[in-house]
Amino acid sequence: MLPALRCPVCGAGLAPAERAARCPAGHSFDLARQGYLGLAGGQGGAGAGAANADSAAMVEARSAFLGAGHYAPLTEALARLAGQLAPADGLSLDAGGGTGHHLAGVLDALPGAAGLTLDVSRFALRRAARAHPRMGAASADVWRGLPVRTGAFDLLLNVFAPRNGAEFHRALAPGGALLVVTPGPEHLAELRASRGLLAVDPAKEERLRRALAGHFVQEAEERLTFGLRLTADEARDLVAMGPNAHHHATGPGGAPPATVTASFRLTVHRPRAGARERDSARG
To answer: Where are the transmembrane segments (predicted)?
Structure first.
């Protein structure tokens, strides 16, 4: 994935070095023993994203929950849409992609493609680096920009993660597509009612629109809803793997509801013509 990356300090290209990547100006970034490239250090220190990075416990819970196949319908929907939106031999980026689980499913649907997962959590990146043989992983804070070349990617995934409209637009090729997943209003409604979990923000769709306004045009939308039948341990992992882990105790909590609703909104966005030029002029 090095040809698609750029130095987060000066913006130059990166070349391989001994257990590292280095730009012509001499900025060097280590390749972690677990296989991911550490680029976040060149973004000027810890930012808002780093402060909310997934902990080891959160990543362990997410890996267990996703590995059990509970969100398989979502991964399958992403893979199906990716097959329609991106060339089979293109490049895909998952911004805030965590363990790389969903991107791995997309790459299975695009047999000649390669992909890159960016995240701020080193615990998630250790798993993403080995999630798929055609996937690379690097640390980066989406709020501080993407350490990737302009126009390098054909598809950009954003699943329950922060959105930087200007940087997403810059990263995509002119004919590329942004595929966003946000929770539907009914998402985990039964668990929220029984355990007092965080509510789905009713303004989430409006916040998504504002985040992408001026840079993207929404092309399509799908709603995906299905039921989950969970053991007490699986319900605990579901709570522990997301933002509720920062606000609630994540013990077993008794028997979960008989069925828990999973609800997602998938939207496809195309880069707005001229947005990149306007951003360059402002800069």
So the answer is: none
